[in-house]
Structures are given as structure tokens and as C-alpha cells.
Write a structure and sequence with these properties.
35% helix; Ribosomal Protein S8, Chain: A, domain 1; alpha+beta; GMP Synthetase, Chain A, domain 3
Length: 231
Amino acid sequence: MLKSIIAQGSTTNEAIEKGLKELNVARNMVDIKVLEEEKRSFFSILAPRVVKVELTLKEEKHQEKPANKPKKEIHLSKEEQNLAYKNLEEFLNQFIKNMPEGTKYKIEKAESAIYVSIDNENLGFLIGYRGETLYAFQNILSSIAGKGINNKVRVILDIEGYKEKREKTLEELADKMAKTVIRTRKSVTLEPMQAYERKIIHTRLQENPKVETKSIGEEPYRKLVISLKSK
């Protein structure tokens, strides 16, 4: 069943904008239907005008299928790994000077990626809401690591072990939501997530014989839907 809501405002546009904000989606992701225009009070012609609209989330047919569209494999040579390491080391040596006292970092080289971990108990501001700041910083580090290298350099960043903790939380959420779907026989739509986080839930439920997952919407508002498998 498609998700629909009814929103209202003093104008049609205001009602639509309120509905889009509630659904947290872009305008091209919903079907819009004007339901009615009315006065709040029948007895007062000065009562503010009220417009009601129905917004129905469009369904996307494709699912998360990471196995069908694998990312291009990255193979860094020893020279490229060493240069990426040097680039990151120079930046991070300066960067941690502005961090809380005792902040340390570690860089590990590999053919597929350069792994960076930053540790201290007071770095929550570097993680941000559900890792948003961490992922943004990870992209910055990837650009810094790739300076002077023709090959794409992928940096995998973790701060205070956040990713391991987040993965466990998402797996627990996946199990809980799957049980809810099976019990109520109704689909559940989760909040917008990073592709990396959607993949964790998708992978966790991939072998579940009773439920299936798919994604709807466009980045950065892409969401995961958990529903019963069709018989």
C-alpha cells in the first residue's frame, strides 16, 4: 500500500510544502490531489481559508540489489598506497592539533582502500547525527588521499568505533521491524538512510523467508521498505 498523507494550509502551495516536509521527500516523488477548500468557520467570512491536499508517495519498482551492480574494484599499487598514506598523514598531523587533547589516529593501507580510525572519547561532534558528519569527513579524506594519484582512492573512516556500533543497532532494528511486518502483515517504511546503512538492513533480511526489502525515493531521502514476501 502506498503511503499517503493529508496536509492543509492557507494556499495550495503551502499545503503541498507542509506535506512534502512531513514525508521528507521532493515534489516529483509524490502524486498530489487537491481535496477541498473550505472556511474554518461557517459563520465568519473573515475566517482563514483552508486548503486540503492528499500526497501519495510514488512507488519505485527497483530494489536494493548490490550483487547485480557491484562497484568497480579498486586496486592501489604499493606506490599509490604509500603516497595516499603520506597525504593523509600530513593532513591528520595538523588536524588533530585542533581536536581534544589525547586524540589519536591510525592509518592502514590496503589495495582496495585506505582505512583511517580516529579515537578519543570526546569526538561526537565529528560523527554527527547518525554519522552524517563522519561520512562527509570521509569524502574529504578520500580527496586528500588521492592528491597526485590517477587511480581513485577510497578512504574508509571510523571514529570511536561508531560504524561497528551502528551496524549492530541497524541489525537489531532490521530483526525488530521484520517481526512487526510478519505480525501485522503491513509494510514498514524506515527513515531515510545512507546507502551503506540500507545495505546492512537489506543483507540482514536477505535470507529471511517471510519478508523482503526494497528502496523508494531519491538520495538523500531514499528509504528502505520492509514488506511480506508475495506467495
